[in-house]
Amino acid sequence: MARLAAGVPRRRPRIGLLGGSFNPAHDGHVHISLIALSRLRLDRVWWLVSPQNPLKSETGMASLAERLARARQLATDRRLVASDLERTLHTRYTVDTVAILRRRLPRARFVWIMGADNLAQITRWRRWPELFETVSIAIFDRPTYSRSAMASIAARSFRRQRVPARMYAKLADLEPPAWAYIRAAPHPESATRLRQLGVWPRGGATAGGGQRP
Q1: N or C: the chain end with fewer CB closer than 10 Å?
Q2: Within 10 A of 12 (CB to CB), how many other CB atoms are there?
Q3: Phi and psi angles of residue 47, each rounded to the nearest 5 degrees, phi first
Q4: Taking a C-beta distance cutoff of 8 angstroms, is the pair 188, 142 a contact?
């Protein structure tokens, strides 16, 4: 964790957390991370490559080493850091990972980054209301999920804590619960498409991937 925090320019760094299987990492992850860096005024975005998504089958999942290596190849911007931190922390669930990070790095200001598809089904995540109470959240729009995301139990439960666009740059500074729904030009690439094309893993097409709870 010290290695991750090294080189961050502020005494109170703003760090975005993008978790998922990264099966595989692709240019869409870079796209959303760069937008988050700009709109949320972040210093870094950490890609947390999950050892295993509890909601996904291990069948068709590339090894952690392979997924991490690909993520690091794509994270060429110095502000993007791909890590297997959850393996080190022995955590499987987002709420546990975030709690440990906040405890060990009390000066850092974290923002959890995820897509609208995850907001739509976040009630399947372990202790999801606690996650909203623990860390600010930036949700990036995905056109086919907009309606279901905004009609979700989570969006309705925390509707009063939604941050307007004029406050996106302050999201990291706000006391949770605080969340933003960010609309940006979508990127056409997806891990699903790469797996369907049979280019990942290198042995052929597979199933699995996505963020984990």
Answers
A1: N
A2: 12
A3: -90, 115
A4: no
0.70 surpassed by pTM: yes
CA 108-114-119 angle, to 5 degrees, is 125
- Position 180 in a domain: yes
How many CA atoms lie less than 13 Å away from 203 in the CB half-sphere?
7
DSSP readout, the chain? -HHHHTT-SSSS-EEEEEEE--TT--HHHHHHHHHHHHHTT-SEEEEEE-S--TTS-STTPPPHHHHHHHHHHH--STTEEEE-HHHHHT--SHHHHHHHHHHH-TT-EEEEEEEHHHHHTGGGSTTHHHHHHHSEEEEE--GGGHHHHHTSHHHHHTGGGBPPGGGGGGGGGSPSS-EEEE--PPPS--HHHHHHTT-SSTT------S---
Residue 202, domain member (yes or no): no
| Residue 19 domain-assigned (yes or no) | yes
Q: How far apart are CA 208 and CA 114, in angstroms?
A: 17
Residue 44: inside a domain: yes
pLDDT single digits (tens) 5-53: 666 666 799 999 999 999 999 999 999 999 999 999 999 999 999 997 6
| Residue-number span of the structural domain to which 186 is assigned | 10-196
